[in-house]
Amino acid sequence: MSVLWTADEAQAATGGRLAGPTDWTARGVSIDTRTLRRGDLFVALKDVRDGHDFVAQALEKGAAAALVTHRPEGVSEDAPLLVVDEVLSGLDALGRRARARTGAKVVAVTGSVGKTSTKEMLRQVLGGQGRTHAAEASYNNHWGVPLTLARMPADTDFAVIEIGMNHPGEIAPLARMAQPDVAIVTTVAAAHLAAFDGIEGIAHEKAAIFEGLKPGGTAIFKGDLETSPILEAAALAAGAAVRTFGETAACHHRVTDIRIGDRHTVSEGRVWRAPVLYKVGAPGRHFAVNAMAVLATAQVLGLDQATALGDLGRWTPPAGRGLREVVALDLVDSRATLELIDDAYNANPTSMEAALEVLAAARTVDDVGRVARGRRIAYLGDMGELGAGEAEAHAGLAESRHMKRIDTVHCVGPLMRNLYDALPAERRGRWTETAAEMEQTLRRDLDAGDVVLIKASKYMGLPRLVDAIKKLGQGASVPDA
Fold first, then answer.
1. Residues in the annotated binding site for ATP
2. Under a CB-based contact definition with an 8 Å cutoff, are residues 461 and 349 in contact?
3. Cβ distance 94 to 23 under 8 Å?
4. Where is the binding site, in residues?
5. Which option is the CATH number for 5-85: 3.40.50.2300, 3.40.1390.10, 3.30.420.40, 3.90.1640.10?
6. Where are the domains of the chain?
7. What is the pTM of this model?
8. How confident is the model over 110-136, as pLDDT tens digits?
């Protein structure tokens, strides 16, 4: 890997002081010694733990230098350090400098649902047409955005920056740091309502991403929401060109037909008046609609559409975001499998509805297990940060139009007790307070031929159910036919 930062460049960007050797070069930037690679600049952020406690370990593992406020105890006098007044501010400065020195076209993405999957679609599509840099995982907060920028090579052609929020006032400063050429709002939905007065407040916060747009930039947002006028007003106030996407004729870029299959979603639509047929490598209406925002971005950036469509068709969601996996229950009988839909990373009413639609459309297999008929089974955990209406929001899932095609719903968490009580008896599975309790009886719930959805807010810990299902029987995955 080429040099990302020289000592002099990092010192000039941060205004810090070099201590120890001053001729080091960094090939990356790290905040975690567990994933640090030799040649990284280690940034000693303070979060749950103080990063200064790990500087010595980082240097032992081969870090090029460390960004610190002081020489930590146990670190030698000749250790390469970049000393600043405040580490997070130093990281911010690196991020701003990295943005300033590149000629990359930058796309910023926010939204109540679909930020990460849209970011990954953009990575796939832009990556087919130039050197592309994008955030790892969901690095979308006050340290994730500057870290993503600080890791961006100067010769990048395209960059994708994910921007999230939990409270008012978080998005605008991160957007101004990223200075996007294109800013996308995937949707506005009831997420983090506990911190806002209502859905309109969330819309205003999401719309703040347009404040960071470079002059002549483009705002892309869902055009068929009740809150779309709020997004449009903010985009116009920022001087942006406006492009809308969605499923109605009022949108510049619209999906006209969606066909959800077992492994893909095939859609038809219009990209700036031109007809288009496209595919994404995952079932889900929400994926198809957000893919239209990606195609709109490609059109705005002047990319080759045929190449973009081909690359989009090869995209699949990451773990925890709707990834589907076939799990073998018997190494001898190749038919004895179940299908797992891992959507355990996050949840709110909108994304929960989308996941239930995917499960309802899934194809089960009969006569391959002890139960004659394959079943659609959901393990649903609490949705966090919904505010005063959280009980009603959970109970309301029982009224989803997709529930009638789901055989059994197991509920995890105190809030999901509201759904459990609202479900008809024939669909009501088990309720437990925690994922650990649910895991204890998981084996008897499932059988070959079933399709299983795991969905909850991350803090509920339902990834442990994902891991437990993968370990059922022989625990071996078989190739996807």
1. 111-117
2. no
3. no
4. 111-117
5. 3.40.1390.10
6. 5-85, 102-313, 323-477
7. 0.84
8. 998 889 999 999 999 999 999 999 987
